[in-house]
Amino acid sequence: MRATYTGASAETVQHSVTQILEQQMTGLDNLLYMSSSSSTGSAQLTLTFESGTDPDTAQVQVQNKVSQADAMLPQAVRQEGVIVSKSAMGDMFMVVSFLSEDGSMDATDIADYMASSVQDPLSRVNGVGSVNVFGSEYAMRIWLDPEKLAHYGLMASDVVAAIEAQNTDVSSGELGGLPAASGQQLNATVTSRSRLRTPEEFRGIVLKSDAGGAAVYLGDVGTVVLGSQDYSSVSRFNGVPASGMGLQLATGANALDVAEAVKARLEELRPYFPDGLSYRIAYDTTPFVRLSITEVVKTLGEAIALVILIMYLFLQNWRATLIPVVAVPVVLMGTFGVLALLGYSINTLTLFAMVLAIGLLVDDAIVVVENVERVMSEEGLPPREAAYASMGQITGALVGIALVLTAVFIPMAFFGGSTGEIYRQFSVTIAAAMILSVIVALTLSPALCATLLLPVEKGGRVPARGPLGRFFPWFNRGFGRMTDRYRHGVGRLLDRRGPGILAYACVLAGMGLLFWRLPTAFLPEEDQGMLMVMLNAPAGATQQRTLQSMDEAAGFIRRQPEVESLFTVAGFSTAGSSQNSGMGFVRLKDWSERTASAREIADRLNAAMADAVRDAQVFAVLPPAIASLGRNAGFTLQLQDPAGNGHEALVQAREQLLERAGSRASLSAVRYGGLEDAPTYKLALDDRKAGALGVSASDVNSTLSAALGGSYVNDFVHNDRIKRVYVQGEASARMLPQDIGRWKVRNGDGDMVPLSEFSSGRWTYVPQTITRFNGAESMEITGSPAAGVSSGTAMTDIAGLVAGLDGGFSHAWSGMSYQERQAGSQAWLLYAVSALFVFLCLAALYESWSIPVSVMLAVPVGLAGALLATWLRDLNNDIYFQVGLLATMGLAAKNGILIVEFAKALEEQGQSLVDATLQAARLRLRPILMTSLAFMLGVLPMVLSSGAGSGGRHSLGTGVLGGTLFSTVLGIFFVPLFYVIVRTRFPGGRSHAADVAMKEAR
Fold it and tell me: Are 244 and 282 in contact (CB under 8 A)?
């Protein structure tokens, strides 16, 4: 919500606008938190709802609450209107800059054309939530001269009244209107007054006249010009005067589609631009999204190629390799169909899940083909009969693997919040792929085996020709020797179980230590090809002084070799609008044209800005990893005063916190997210004396408001478009405190009384911006973790500093930091629920409560590997890592299922427990290594990737690769050990003879 109260101080806005709106925001469904900012002349409230809330419903509810507050708002605010939009203010996904190539248009001309002819068409583009214009359209500006007004015995209110009376549309009726007199032959409309159009017409407005014909006109007491509606911001593009607009995305809109639609609309409007006017895209986050998707698709292709190679290495004939290859497009297309049916889009998250699924979905087909070939070789059966026999052996394992891998990810789909939205993308994609994969493995894959595979003699294999014909026998002999050594190693481990249990205990201890030591984060920091620059000049600095500092900063930034363009706005920032604030949007060159990352460039700029710009604080920050979750990357903390110590104490606590944060090595660029308190001239009016002089309080108020702050009177017509009329004192009459005495008010006797006769003033400091969080005054503290430090560690450190402040101050999190804290509390619940689902699926599969324990005990081995790989690479425990950890849990269980399923079947056929376990381990080693290597090579391109979006790919791929490696190298030893131990202590279950007897009885 945005409201305008022209000329009002931040305190006035807070008491008369912000708090009134806040108090009405009760009973809203799914509201998470509310923050507000009151600054000179404007109020802004942001209401953040739970993820999944219908934005249209929320907007209607908020609009209804605003309507209830309307009667309590000042008239000036009601006249401007309270704007409610369903997008995060300040969260701009695109900034468009307009500039005059030939210099024929100045900044005001550009801003007027942009606001009059471009803003509305872009606002109507589907998916655009709101448009923030840097500049404004023309307005009729009437600059009053206090001496001339006094000379004619006039006040500002007289001017306003005359304009309201003479600049208006009057419905004068008609001649011969019905009911008409009998015989009336004429009917015509009567026009009289209408809205004025030109400065000349406004200068002719009569303010005062007498019987002798003498008159005082508006042009006699002031200057009337066609100026700008708002002079608060000055924009430049690469140092050239420009104007621009920032576009916010509507809640739930697709950024790529909206960006394309905006660019297409601009191209449609381009032919109608005035000569010399052009536009530039100064800031755009969508190229990062598009390139990230391209990189993931590339990774997907690399993963498929590597998976095919590893399958051919083990299967050793192209017919067998073709069967799992056919499964890939079938399952992928089916998965895309499921996503489309559920309303999901192809994005980086679903494509990440596809990359993971590539290694998983071929596992089932590999298991089918490998077992069919083994049966053909060992029993000499033809392909058709071998397929039947093979499916009787492995159907249970296939179903178990599918159930486990699906059960691991299904709980993710039911978590709430923004974290749940991210989880849900992975959950739906991988679960759909796994279910379709097992369906293909149970139907299409055995049919292809029976059709494509060639018969082989008992004990033989399909011969390969050429160089591979010599390589494969050598590989098979080596693999056979490795299999024998593996069986021997498992046998020794089963004979001496104590060292194995001790080694497992060490793995558990290492896993716990790594969980404790691994830094936490919400999402990995990404190089989006964009930077934002925040500039704060000293409190009370004028726009000219701010522009000078901004030009110095802009010159330094543009000299950086990685910078493509820079768009700056003086007078505007996401922290608040004032003359001493400014903001810049930096567009970096393409990732292929630079070696430094966005973080490295930002750190370089921040380190050099103290010397480059001495009269202002300048910070370069990265955009947030997820749009609408905060205004920039890093953390956002709300320093609160629940004890009611007051504004001054809160300011002192803020300064103390910033001082301590500056000395912490884990924190970087910690700063106050608002505007510093500024010098204010406090004018005290002596109402008693004013009354004695016969001066009306309402005349005093209207004169001060119009002279110093400016009054919006009504509208005029310019180029067939309605624009505004403002009355304000001329610049020379409102520069110094003594200028207030130049303004006079007429008393009851008709005498002009200077305001200085009944007023006095003093200087003080008051807030430029007053921020509130959930209805209580707060200070927004933003910052970034230092290089090599996770956001979770930085958040813990800054929260610890708040706890050390005297006076009972507290903190709350907002933006992405709020989501990160929520995600951290959900992670352990997610792991526990997923593990429980896996265990229940295994218990149902084996009809036993004890056998699943042998599989589940192998899971921590994979988790330890994922943690170790992530820690060695200096990555964080973020959402992508958590997804990878769940995938590792499922993969570790899958390897255990392949061994336990065969061991249980062999044991039921009459073999001893140890012999059955050793035989199962030997038989299943090849498919375990095949599927694990296929999966590891499938995710390897994610681990080694670079460019846009590589942060997320590294976080996801590294953990999964490390976990699968550990699960494969160590898990294949621990699973047989745990199976023997569990079956020894819990030997329950029916024997094979009992099963046969029961079948015969049936």
Answer: yes
